[in-house]
Amino acid sequence: MGDWKTITVPVLSSDSKNIFHYTSEKKISPPSMNSQVLRLPLPSSKSMHSFFSAFCTEENIEQSISYLNRELTTLGFPSIYAESKGQELNLISIINCMNELLVLQHKNLRAQEEVEMQHLKLGSDMDHLQNCYAKLKEQLELSKREIVGLQERDRQLQSKNRNLHQLLKNEKDEVQKLQNIISSRATQYNHDMKRKEREYNKLKERLHQLVMNKKDKKIAMEVLNYVGRADGKRGAWRTDKTEARNEEEMYKVLLSDYEQRQKQLLVENAELKKVLQQMKKEIILLLPPQKQKPKERSEDGPVLSDLEEDIGELNKENMWELSCETVREQLTNSIRKQWRMLKNHVEKLDNQVSRVHSGALNEKDVISREDHELETEKLELEIQQCKEMIKTQQQLLQQQLMSPCDDDTTLLLQDCYLLEERERLQEEWRLFREQKKNFEKERRSFTEAAIRLGLERKAFEEDRGAWLKQQFLSMSTDYKHSENVTTPSAFLGSKYLVQIMLFHHLKIT
Amino acid sequence: MYKRGVVQVWSLEQPDWHCKIDEGSAGLVASCWSPDGRHILNTTEFHLRITVWSLCTKSVSYIKYPKACQQGIAFTKDGRYMAVAERRDCKDFVSIFVCSDWQLLRHFDTETQDLFGIEWAPNGCVLAAWDTCLEYKILLYSLDGRLLSTYRAYEWSLGIKSIAWSPSSQFLAIGSYDEKVRILNHVTWKKITEFEHPATVASSKTIVYKEVEKSPSVETERLSFPPTRALASSLFSTQSKYDVSQVPVSLQHIKPVADRANPKMGIGMLAFSPDNCFLATKNDNIPNAVWIWDIQKLKLFVVLEQLCAVQSFQWDPRQPRLAVCTGSSKVYLWSPAGCVSVQVPMEGDFQIVSLAWHCSGDSVALLSKDNFCVCYLEREEVK
């Protein structure tokens, strides 16, 4: 190729530095131009001229064109020369080549961008990974140190544990030794004690002999009089019969004690059996009678029949007295069975209640807890109200009964009472007045009657007087005439006279 | 009169009647009445023998080889039988005599190392025999000499200190040196419960009565000089009353010296009330307190805390009333209704050391060293 001269390109901007760098390099190695072409950034328009002028000048046109042609053909582009071997240039192929070159350039640029991006990414990833690695290494170091520390501690504790075990063993051994010592000393002491006791016994015997010898001579006891025996009987000789009697007495005492105890136990037993029976009956009542699944029926079958049998049997009074094993076992077994059934039943009910509470099932048989609670609340309210009413009524009643302490109310009350009384009195007054009037009327009528009566009497008296006079006169004259004519009239007259006398008498009285 | 070896007997009904028994050179260590009141049993010196003197026949019987222990002779409650502890050839035996004619009924050996005491159950059918305090062992024999049961609570530590039968013979209370009382039942002779005596009473259901001193109130107007005797005694004797303390209460606990024999620890006194409802105990480690347990509930009921160490206590033979004396001149009475401290109205000091109830429950005799006085209790009028 031609020699490239170092052209001093004016420093336009920072991005032209590469170009400057490039041109100086271009001078050195033309075959390495390919790679350098690729590395070239898109030149700015300002440096374009200098760049283009650097490669092809007026002198080396032919050379540069042939060079270009060579390069392009090696790259696989069609030749830029025309088909004939002249120096004429094929414009179309040149343009095509240029276009191709541009396209290639774009592609390459894009690829470069991509690669650079990836490069950046990889770089950052690498940084990140390196950081992680550093941190993990640190952590690893720390944990290793910790482990070492813990291991050390573990070792210390284990050694301590071993020491303690050793101490414990030592202590146990010592305790065992001491116990052995104690037991051996105890046996030694016992032996010594026995020896000393034997010696002591021998001394006692000797002393006893001496004392007994002396004893026979003195009178040991002086009594003024003899005292009678406590039970009043006389003393008896000691014979075999008395011995036998004593034995008998002793056994009697023992037997009576045992019999008493047995009686007490029997009574207790009977009471407990009664209680068990009652419990059994109540449990049977508590259990629901029809609530049995078919599966259980087979189990309960024998139980039910047992139940019936039990009830039938144990209704007999005789069973109370029997205390043989089989009857006892029967009773306790049946109670156990019933109790188990009751427990199952209660558990079932509990499950049902809990299910309803959780809201899973709605059993018709079982009242839900909320309803139940509502009902109880309502009832409680009612009870409260009733209680309050009762209280108020009680208070009122008490107030009425007790002597009132409030003045106004007392006055009011008193006024009420007075009104009542007044009204009553008025009534009575009215009655009284009426009666008085009646009495007045009657009195007036009576007086009038009395006046009339008086007048009539007077008239009558006058009449009487006149008649008497007349009679007297007539009687005296008649007497002269005849004695027997006027006997009836005289009789009548005398009768009339008697009547008058009687009336007088009555009047007087 | 132990030193002279003479026993003198007087009659309460016939003041002229008199009896004198002279043991002579045999010496006298102990003397007691037989339950029918017609015989006197004298134990000679060194426990050589027991002489039974009869006051009705002036006859004498001897019992050889009696044991020198704390409770060697025991009479049944009805006075029919007497049990005597004996020791021959380093083995313990028990002999049962019929008191009416002093005939030997049964003679059997006991499996004890060193028999310490024997006691009849109130029903007269069971005899309890217990070993020395070095061994915790109690044996129960029936009246005819058969061994009914043995009970051992633990080994090696000091064992039984005192026992008491309940009046119905249902329970046997055993007090031991480990400050516990164990109760055995009469059906199986096994332990039914243990009562502990800790220094701190923590249960809220027990009542703790504490004796406090009341400062005597002196009326200054009535002071006269020189002061009269009554006034002086009332000035110097301090009145006391009971206060109810709040639980938890901590009682004064003493630790006895470890290297001396018969240490003051453990349950030294036990007594059942006559109606079988209460058990009174005293823990020698806590000498100022009397513990009263409710037997129906098997729980601690009341604790009485005194100012001085309790010397003795006894139940009224008719009702659940406990009389306690502490060596001061006051006698303390407790019943489920409450407790009271009564001053003995004496001039000078009257240190009550022990007391004894009359069998009717109406009076109690208070004994000091040289004197004794009788305290009468008024009965509630029944309308």
TrEMBL record, chain A:
Entry keyword annotation includes Magnesium: no
Transmembrane segments annotated in the record for this chain: none
Source organism of the structure: Bubo bubo (Eurasian eagle-owl)
Alphabetized UniProt keyword annotations: Cell adhesion, Cell junction, Coiled coil, Cytoplasm, Cytoskeleton
Coiled-coil residues: 126-213, 255-282, 369-396
GO cellular component: adherens junction; centriolar satellite; ciliary basal body
Pfam family, one: ADIP
Protein name in UniProt: SSX family member 2 interacting protein
Family: Belongs to the ADIP family.
Cellular localization per UniProt: Cell junction, Adherens junction; Cytoplasm, Cytoskeleton, Microtubule organizing center, Centrosome, Centriolar satellite
Highest taxon listed in the record's lineage: Eukaryota
GO annotation, biological process: cell adhesion; intraciliary transport involved in cilium assembly
Coiled coil found in the keyword field: yes
UniProtKB/TrEMBL annotation, chain B:
GO cellular component, one term: MWP complex
Domain of life, per lineage: Eukaryota
Entry-linked InterPro entries: Centrosome-WD_assoc, WD40/YVTN_repeat-like_dom_sf, WD40_rpt
Protein known as: WD repeat containing, antisense to TP73
Lineage: Eukaryota, Metazoa, Chordata, Craniata, Vertebrata
